[in-house]
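Notes from hallway chat w/ T.B., transcribed later so I don't forget. T.B. wanted the structure written out for a chain they're using in a teaching module, and asked if we could keep both sequence and structure tokens in one place. Agreed to drop them here.
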Amino acid sequence: MRNLIASIGLAGATLLPLVQSRAATPPLLRTPTISDAQIVLVYGDELWTVPREGGTARLLTSGPGVKSSPALSPDGKWLAFSLDFESNVDVYVMPAEGGN
């Protein structure tokens, strides 16, 4: 019985780094919103835009906090999103092409 417990403990210690590395969330592309001209999405807790036809993605936001839930206005001119900074979630609106 003691050898079985030691074997389980050794296997658990061997697998623990693998399980922990799987638990870390990679910065996946999340929650896209689409207008006639562009796509806005979250990647690495920042907002990015790319032309709807494809091309190079451009960073729209940078700074502290986790950005989420982007939503383009029906005319595609405005972008609303949530910003979680130190457990305080607020909604922000900015021009869809970037800026303050």
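Follow-up for T.B.: The CA atoms of residues 13 and 20 lie 11 Å apart. Might be a good example for the class.
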